[in-house]
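Running this now, will post back.
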Amino acid sequence: MDPGLAAFGSGLSAITVAELGDKTFFMALILAVRHPRRWVFLGSFAALAVVTLLSLGVGYGLRELLPVRLLPWLAGGLFLVFGIRLLLEAQALPADAARGEALEAEQAVIAADRQLLSSRPLAVIWEAFALVFIAELGDRTQLATIVLATAPGFTFAGLLAGTLLGHALVTALAVGSGRWIGDRVDERLLYRLGGGLFLLFAVVAFRQALG
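Update: finished.
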């Protein structure tokens, strides 16, 4: 398969699964209930785009620091660890895990709204940007992006396009759906899907290393 297309599909699928039901997903959802949707989308997506670029930079930095022959093994190991971690976390999650994420997001939004001095577009965009940016740092979506970027078979352009499209789709869903979709998110299922996806990536990376 073309490396660019493989990177695009992997980035799109991994980010979509990881971001659905995430705290930043609920932040965008709750903000859109309280403020104009288009400004919330712009601020949220801008924050996700900045974190994505930072994460890809970290992953590609690791590529440059390590010998080329070790990269498939590194990528496979990281995919394996991340996949197993997601599956183990899925087992430990309570049935109402999504509700807990939503509650934390709502508390953060309420606190930020109290400090909002204006309802002008730039103020709303900045609030959404700041909340999502801080919540995304160290999140599983950021870690997933870093891990994806270590794979030598994935191009930068393909990963960038796939991850950004995934973020755009999920953010648009959060902003446009209201609480309807939030009440139907199954965190455990999404963790299992994400874990299985990264285990599949690990198999592909190890086959590349052995080949």
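The radius of gyration is 17 Å. More later if anyone needs it.
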